[in-house]
Known about the structure:
The chain is an alpha+beta fold. 27% of the residues lie in helices and 29% in strands.
Amino acid sequence: MDKIEELLKKLSQAFGPSGYEDEVIDIVEKELKDVCDLHRLSSNSLLAVLEGNKKGKMLFSAHLDEVGIMLSKIENGYARIVPVGGVDPKILPAQRVKIRTIEGFQHGVVGMLAPHLQKKGKKGNVTFDSLFVDLSCAPAAKVGDVAVVEASPFKMGKYLFSGKAMDDRASAVALITAVKMLAEVQSRPNVYALFSSREEVGMIGAMTGAFEVKPDVGIAIDVTFADNSSNNAPDVRLGRGPALASGVGTYRKLYDIMREVAENENVKYQIEPIPGRTGTDADAIQLAYKGVPAVLVSIPEMFMHTPVEVVSMKDLWETARLLSAFAVKWGERYAS
């Protein structure tokens, strides 16, 4: 557990908004370079290939990118900003940001008009039009540069872990762990672990990666909302295992196998009803090639798309166990 916690910390701290995942990829490569073959794809995704002795190709996909911001206009040392992915502007005021410039990383702070100076009736109304980044410490920043909020990951109690980019680097840790488990198994199908790019802006890496592999089945690993108080929200909780997507957005037979494997392997799991598209790499994988049966496994998470996302290390471990056991079972039953 300590090793995967340290890996999660490294991945959380890495800079990697959509389209700029290179620093994150470097970390993943170091973890898997002695385990399987690695290929960087033109989409800026990383594909790890673990050859098996069974027929069939299984594709796992967890995305590496995080949400961020882009500098859209610079005036007198201040930058206006627009979101990269689903960023709520209310989380940005008073945050420090790390900006990727042509001269390397530089830093800024997000500010807005003090409440005393805001127009009557608009106090507390935070929009991207009301925000700016002070570039006093970022003289090299230019329009089009991207940035992420600076946040230090930290442990909360025995199992909970908080930091930025848990979406979806918690899933990347689970997938790395599963690949290492499968490397120790003699009987397995051909496993392709895709660490995809640009999920937050359209699942681009998953779509191109699935066309590259042409898999027989696909499994997306992402995060989902946990401990949500909304009346009709699924009752998904931290620490109770991965959530299996059940519904029209995934392939029912694969879901049935995944659930059977979880029960046989004593993996704690939860059920997440999906009435439509999943909004994850699973959507892109299903539309690739000639159409790929896909299923979604999600790690419960609180405070998604904020600098303090929270996951449980127990859920990461259970997800890794489930993914590796599922690959073995599918290879035995369907890829012989």
